[in-house]
Amino acid sequence: MIENKLVFRPPIHSDLPAIATLLTAAGFDNDSADRLGTAFDGLKTFSVVALRANRLAGVLLATFNGWHVFASHLAVEPSARGGGIGKLMITALIRQAATAGAKGLIVDSRLSAVGFFQKLDFRLPGAVFLIRDIQLDR
Description:
Shape: globular
CATH class: Alpha Beta
Order of helices and strands: EHHEEEHEH
Distance between the termini: 53 Å
């Protein structure tokens, strides 16, 4: 079983280059390393990394606002996708959120991943998630 080969823990600062590489490989922005460095203190408590043989196999970035845990980036190394690592990281985050007294877990997902989350008992609440792009005037 895959779970016996994986170790889950919060990220540490030395994980940031590997996390940035994994996120970029998963299609997130190329500036992940800079963004992670800026946000690390706020992310390290609720985020989860999956390690296989001391090598990063997956990452789930999350924060907690006192009511809900908000997960925004889930990535698994390409060769391990479909092997259950994402599900196990979500399960680890749910346990951590419950321990912290969170009311729920909110996930920001690509449309192509909605089915994955629905299989894990997530629901579409009918709320609208709005984004405003930010551009600095130069």
